[in-house]
Write a structure and sequence with these properties.
129 residues; alpha+beta; Elongation Factor Tu (Ef-tu), domain 3; eight-stranded antiparallel sheet; 16% helix
Length: 129
């Protein structure tokens, strides 16, 4: 019985791959793929960072009120912008509450109740204008 020869896999280096590519012409599909990969994508415009002062944690649709966890102080009369996936509007704060008690100023870390003009959703951002 003859001995079987073991197949030895050659380790391909960049040089050997380049030689193979030079010997064999590339197919059209392969050429198109390599050209697509080599193209650079246009750079995106830098986003303007807004002054985020809080996040919406809950919304009560019957009373049209939102609960906001504040990251910065806020007071009645300030103009805010609420922005989210489907939400984008501005309004002036007319009333705020903490534990059903009306307040005029709220500090960082407070969870306040706020009357809103339109529907909002959880995780919408609240920015000061």
């Amino acid at each position: 019985m003859p001995l079987k020869k073991k197949k030895i896999k050659k380790v391909r280096t960049k040089k050997s791959i380049k030689k193979i590519i030079k010997k064999r012409p590339l197919k059209k599909k392969t050429l198109k793929r390599t050209l697509k990969k080599s193209k650079t994508k246009p750079k995106a415009k830098p986003k303007i960072k807004e002054n985020v002062i809080g996040l919406i944690t809950h919304y009560f649709p019957k009373v049209r009120a939102a609960v906001i966890k504040l990251k910065a102080p806020l007071s009645v009369g300030d103009s805010i912008k609420i922005k989210g996936h489907t939400t984008d509007f501005t309004q002036v704060i007319s009333s705020m509450q903490i534990d059903r008690v009306p307040i005029t100023n709220a500090k960082k870390g407070d969870e306040i109740g706020l009357l809103v003009n339109s529907r909002v959703r959880q995780h919408d951002k609240v920015c000061k204008q």
